[in-house]
Amino acid sequence: xxxxxxxxxxxxxxxxxxxxxxxxxxxxxxxxxxxxxxxxxxxxxxxxxxxxxxxxxxxxxxxxxxxxxxxxxxxxxxxxxxxxxxxxxxxxxxxxxxxxxxxxxxxxxxxxxxxxxxxxxxxxxxxxxxxxxxxxxxxxxxxxxxxxxxxxxxxxxxxxxxxxxxxxxxxxxxxxxxxxxxxxxxxxxxxxxxxxxxxxxxxxxxxxxxxxxxxxxxxxxxxxxxxxxxxxxxxxxxxxxxxxxxxxxxxxxxxxxxxxxxxxxxxxxxxxxxxxxxxxxxxxxxxxxxxxxxxxxxxxxxxxxxxxxxxxxxxxxxx
Amino acid sequence: xxxxxxxxxxxxxxxxxxxxxxxxxxxxxxxxxxxxxxxxxxxxxxxxxxxxxxxxxxxxxxxxxxxxxxxxxxxxxxxxxxxxxxxxxxxxxxxxxxxxxxxxxxxxxxxxxxxxxxxxxxxxxxxxxxxxxxxxxxxxxxxxxxxxxxxxxxxxxxxxxxxxxxxxxxxxxxxxxxxxxxxxxxxxxxxxxxxxxxxxxxxxxxxxxxxxxxxxxxxxxxxxxxxxxxxxxxxxxxxxxxxxxxxxxxxxxxxxxxxxxxxxxxxxxxxxxxxxxxxxxxxxxxxxxxxxxxxxxxxxxxxxxxxxxxxxxxxxxxx
Lengths: 319, 319
Hints:
The structure is a homodimer. Chain A is built from eleven helices and twelve strands. Chain A has helices at residues 17-28, 40-50, 87-105, 119-123, 132-139, 168-171, 174-192, 216-229, 243-249, 260-271, 306-317; strands spanning 5-9, 33-38, 57-59, 70-73, 111-113, 146-150, 155-158, 197-201, 233-238, 254-257, 276-280, 285-289. In chain A, helix 1 packs across helix 11 (306-317). The first copy, chain A, is α/β, with parallel strands linked by helices. Chain A has a twelve-stranded mixed sheet with strand order 3-4-2-1-5-12-11-6-7-10-8-9, with helices on both faces.
C-alpha cells in the first residue's frame, strides 16, 4: 500500500466531526490511506443509523500497513446526543488527538488531520486548550510554529496568534517575521510545486505611513529584505486594510499577517467555508478544517465535508 | 429657499472630484442647495468640455441665500492635467476645505461635504494632513471627534484612528469607548429616526477569551454598561473576527470598532464603493465619499458619483 497514511481524528463526538468523517472517508481512499482515530463502536453505530457504508477494519497500530483504511479504536462511549458535549465526550476528543500525535511521532502515519473539538468543554476538564495548534505544539515542546489558513486561491500565515493585542508590537521582530515568511514559502513550494509570490502586511494603520504611526514596519522591511536575499519572491509591507485587495489584484499566492484578527477578519469574511487550517513547524504535517463543532447542525446530516476533504488533500500535498 | 445649504468642496482638481461634482449637482438640487466651494472657471470649462450642464451662479458668501445652487469661487487655476496633482492644485484643494469650514463656522452653510484630495501632494507643501477628519478637527481645536463609515446597511465608528497600534490598548478607556457609542447612537437616531442597535467589538483575539488574551475588554464592558444605563441599545464586546457576521445575522445597525484596521479591513472588503465617511464631534455636520482621488481614472468620465451622492444625502439626513 503506497498511499500516504493520514491519521484523522474523530473530533468531539457530539459535533459534526463524526458525520463529516463518514461522508468523506470513501472519497479520500482514492489518494490516501485513512487511519481514523476515534471510537469504532460509535462510528459503526452512527454509520448504520445514517445508512452509510463504513468499510474500515478496526486494528492495532502495529498493523496499519495491512489495510487500505482502518480505525484505531481509542475508547467506547456512552450515549452522546448531537449538539451536547459532555465531560466524557470532551475527554474522548482529547484522547483522539493525543493518540494521533503519538502515531505521527512514531512515524506510523505520515500526517494528522484533526476534526473539530469543543474548547469550552475541554476547559471544564481543567485542560488548557486554545486550539489544536497550540495544544499539539505545547505537547511536543515546539516553540517556533505558525498557524496558516489555506485555500486554493490564497494562504494566510500568522506571525502571532493567541496573545493580547498589546503584546503584539514587541513580538514583531525581524526574526519572527522572517521565520513566518520562510515556513510559508517552503510549504507553498511543496503544495504548488512552483515559485510562489508572498505579500507581507504592515502592523500599523497605512503600514505606519512613513513612521508617522509606528515603526515596526522597519523590522518587517528587514525581514522582507532577508527573505529576498534568500531568493524568495516576497513584497511589502502593505497597508493592512487593502492587503486582501492587493492579493487579488496583483496575483499573490499568499499573505503573511502580523496578528490574529488582521488575518482572521478577512479570512472569515472571504473564504471561511473552504479554508483549511494548517500548522507549520511541527515534526509532522498537521491540517484541519477551519470550522468548529457546529453544534447547531450536528446530527442533522446537513454539514458539508468540503473543508475536511480540503484539509486531507492539503495534508497529502504537503508530504 | 428652505432647503439645507450644503458646502461641497471641489477636491483635488486633478482627481475625480470635479467630474463627480458635475455628475451629481443637478440631482442633489432636489433635496438641498449645493454651495460648491472651488474654482468657478475650472468647473465651467470642464463642464463645457464634457457637454454637461452647470446651472450655478457664482456669488459672494453673503448672497448664498438668493440662489438654488451656487459656486463660491476661491481661486483661478493654471493648466491641470487629470491624474497629475501639482503644488498649485494641492494648495487650491486645501483652500477649498478652509473656505468650506469657514462658511460652516459662520453658519452660512448647514453642512460640509468634502471631495477627495491628494494627501501626498499636500504633504509636499509642508502641511500635516492625515485626512480631512484630523485636519478639520485640528483647525477647530476639537479633541473629541470620531470617524464613522456609513452605508445604508451599517455604520462603523472608530474609537481610535491614526495612531500606532502599540498605543491603541492604553487609549481604550471606558470614557473613550463610551463617547464613541454615545456619538454614534445620537447620529444614527437622527438618520434613521428610530431606536438603533449597536454592536461593540472587543480589542483582543476572541475578545480576550475571559482575560486570557488581554483585559481591555473589562473597560469596554464598563462603557457598554454605562451606555445601557443611559437607555442605549448596545451589546458586546464581540470577537473582532466574527463581528461583521454577527452584525448581519443579528440585525445590528452599527458597530463600534477599537482601531483603524479593525474597522477598515471589513469596511473596504464589504462595502467600500457605497460607503460615506462622516465625522462626529465637530460643531457642524461633515461627510465625504469614502474613496480617494482615483488618479488612474480621473478625467475619463467613468468614475461613479454614487459615494458622493450618498455623502450629500447622509449630510442632509443628519441635519
